[in-house]
């Protein structure tokens, strides 16, 4: 993979230093660029998990997770002909300015629009909790623009009551139901949708009881994203021991796949 030199002398991959971030400087606070994003971080600390029990903060890290379109341009010289070769490829950029976070929130149907003031207000708490880090600063004339990114590609909350009764979880559940009807030939009445949302919430409450127990079994840092799928499998296996959870799954099956029983 090609690498670029930044003004501060650090070497970063071109997946991090895109065309929009050309000339970016490391944060003054640290004097160096942050470490690459971890694959998955399991959050086992209740106080840290509570930071995301806020709709705006959750939306901000969701926007940062999805990234935005950018380009990466490399310039080489053919050693035989001396001809300059310019190549440009499309990439996803995961470091964003406050203005970009606001703009990208408007482009996702399942994310509420975030205001500039909200981002400035909540970013310090996300940084304090270790979810977001200041990536660097780009100077254009007299104007400076700070860029922020997540510290991990995925966060898994194994503690707390995050999202179970919140408007955010209802919105997320509604998004899943919309996907069911859009991707599959599944037709749901308003009563079916209301029933399914209730069943999903009940199912998640039961599954949540096993999340902290399974989370405590994780040893050390997690570098493999497949661990997330394994973790969810273990949570469901834990829930299998609950008769009420099994009844709920059967009821969900009746709603989504009628006549299958």
Q: Helix and strand layout, with pairings?
A:
Elements: E1 3-5, E2 11-13, E3 38-43, H1 46-50, H2 55-66, E4 68-77, E5 84-93, H3 98-105, H4 116-128, E6 132-140, E7 143-150, E8 152-157, H5 167-183, H6 190-215, H7 226-239, H8 243-256
Parallel strand pairs: 3-8
Antiparallel strand pairs: 1-2, 4-5, 6-7
By CATH's scheme, which homologous superfamily of the largest domain applies?
Winged helix-like DNA-binding domain superfamily/Winged helix DNA-binding domain
Let me know the average pLDDT.
Answer: 85
Global Rg = 22 Å
How many domains would you count in the coordinates?
2
Largest sheet: 2 strands, antiparallel
Which sequence of SSEs, written as H and E, runs from N to C? Answer: EEEHHEEHHEEEHHHH
Count of DSSP H/I helices: 8
Taking the alpha carbons of the first and last residues, their distance comes to 52 Å
Give the name of the CATH architecture of the largest domain: Orthogonal Bundle
Helix-and-strand structural type: alpha+beta
Strand content: 15-25%
Spatial sequence of strands, sheet with the most strands: 1-2
Q: Give the uncertain stretches in residue-range form.
A: 1-9
Helix content: 40-55%
The CATH class of the largest domain turns out to be: Mainly Alpha
By CATH, the topology of the largest domain is Arc Repressor Mutant, subunit A
- Beta-strand segment tally: 8
Subunit organisation of the chains? single chain
Q: Quick one: overall form?
A: elongated
